[in-house]
What we know:
Blueprint: E1 5-6, E2 9-10, H1 11-37, H2 52-65, H3 72-98, E3 100-101, E4 111-112, E5 116-117, H4 118-144, H5 148-196, H6 210-220, H7 229-245, H8 252-260, E6 265-266, H9 270-283
Antiparallel strand pairs: 1-2, 3-6, 4-5
Amino acid sequence: MINIALLNSNAYTLFYYFIIYSFMGWCLETVYATIIKKEFINRGFLYGPFCPIYGFCTLSIIILLKPIETNYIFLFFGSIFLTSTIEYLTGYVLEKVFNSTWWDYSDELYNVHGRICLLFSILWGVISILILKVIHPYIFYVVKSIPSRPGLLFFYITLLYFILDFTITVITICRLKSLLNQINLAYMELIDKLSDFKINLGNTKNIPEIKIKLDQLIEGAEIKMSKKKSDIENMIKELKIKYDSLFIKKSPEYSRLLKAFPDLRFKGLDSILKDVKNKIHKNK
């Protein structure tokens, strides 16, 4: 399998390029995010120190644009087209598969559906020229110098690692979405029960920040029936305990993901996700 030829390269060599450039992309993203946030941020979709989108974008440049690397104009605009296409498709697939938004360039000028924007596309064009003309010759030499036997062993170990890391990440995302749905159900259960007792909740069509709403319900719910107020409040408190218990021993495993993607949103669960972020931040 590793000797399969792909445009004058084999899978073994291309995979090493993918590893190296994914790691370099992770370093770039992490340093940038750490400086902006003034705390260490493990950027990237995976748990490990890799940003796969950088690896895929760089591979596309190396494979498809290497023949025109001497023409800087074609190289620049070709890089913009390739990397922007990959980033757009990646954002689209993630949105459709997980029903979520992972990054959002909507505030940037000349963006397309918030998935790509002109500024970062131009930066990719500049970086691509830097990679092909300055960085890649050294990477090519390093990969070529790796001894075959240990190199092959490392190839299979790293490939297995990527598979495991990707699997764990997907499971974590699914669990996070499940948690948000459970919290939403707990909130809706609270709304239904309070409605049964004819408690005035005001406008509940649009769910507000959950924590604030629950506290308000406990402290100031207006009872419009003869049942004792204390009984109603106890019921509300029990549901609130159920709500809060959903965070216990669960929120830490989502902390890295939420810090890495501050713009992460799940359709229909934005306010709940915001409360999860606040809860994690408060616990820290």
